[in-house]
Amino acid sequence: MTAFPDRDRDPVRRNPVRDRRQWLALAGFALAAFAAAAIGGIGVSGTGAEYNSLRQPAWAPPSSVFGPVWTVLYAMIAVAGWLIWRRAGTGPALWLYAAQLVLNAIWTPLFFGGGAYGLAFAEIVVLWFTIGGTVLFAWRASARIAALLLLPYWVWVTYATALNLAIWQLNR
C-alpha cells in the first residue's frame, strides 16, 4: 500500500496535465480582466481633458491616479476569479464574478464616452452590489482569499460611486 493512494494529492508526484490546466485557467481569467480593462481603456481614450474640465468635488483625484490604481485592481480581480473557480467551480460566486466584470467594462463608456453621468451612477450602484455579492458568495464557498482580494476593488468602487454621484450633481 502506498503512502499516497490518490496520486493527485501526493505533494511529490505532480500531475502535469492538471497543473497546465490551472495555469491556462489563470491566463484565461487574466485575459478576461484585461478585456474589461481594454473596453474601459477604449472608453477613456483621450478623455483626460474632459475629466479635468468637469466640476469636481475637492476630494476628486487627478486623472493620473486611475491608471495605476486600476492596473493593480485588475490583477487582483483576475487572481480572485481564478481562486473562485478553483474553490467554487461554476456556481453562483463565479456567475456574480462574471457579471461584475461585465458591469465594470460597461461603466467607463457610459460615464466618459456617453457623458451619461446619471445612468453611469445607476450602473455603478448595481456594480457595487454585484461586487458585494461576489465577495459574499466567494467567502461562503471557502474562497476566502479571493473574497479578500476583491475588498480593495469594492472599496475603490465605493469611492468611485460617491465620485460619480458628486460629478453628476455638480455638472447638471
Please outline the helices and strands.
Blueprint (H helix, E strand, L loop, with lengths): L15 H29 L3 H6 L12 H23 L3 H22 L3 H24 L3 H27 L2
Helix pairs in contact: 1-3, 1-4, 3-4, 3-6, 4-5, 5-6
Account of the protein in words:
76% of the residues lie in helices and 0% in strands. It contains six helices and no strands. It has helices at 16-44, 48-53, 66-88, 92-113, 117-140, 144-170. The longest helix has 29 residues, at 16-44. It is elongated and about 60 Å long. The protein starts with 15 loop residues before the first helix and ends with a helix. The relative contact order is 0.14. Residues 1-8 have low confidence and may be disordered.
State which percent range the strand residues make up.
under 5%
For the sheet with most strands, the description reads: none
Task: Tell me the CATH topology.
Answer: Ferritin
- Tell me, rounded to a whole number, the average pLDDT: 89
Oligomer: single chain
Low-confidence stretches: 1-8
Any idea what the CATH superfamily is called? Answer: TspO/MBR protein
Rg from alpha-carbon coordinates? 19 Å
* Strand element count: 0
Any idea how many domains?
A: 1
Output the CATH class name.
Mainly Alpha
Helical content stands at over 70%
How many helical stretches?
A: 6
The appropriate CATH architecture is Up-down Bundle
Compressed to H and E, one letter per element, the order equals: HHHHHH
Instruction: Tell the overall outline.
Output: elongated
Put the structure in a nutshell:
The chain is mostly helical and 172 residues long.
What tags apply to this protein structure?
mainly alpha; disordered N terminus; 0% strand; Ferritin; 172 residues; 6 helices; elongated
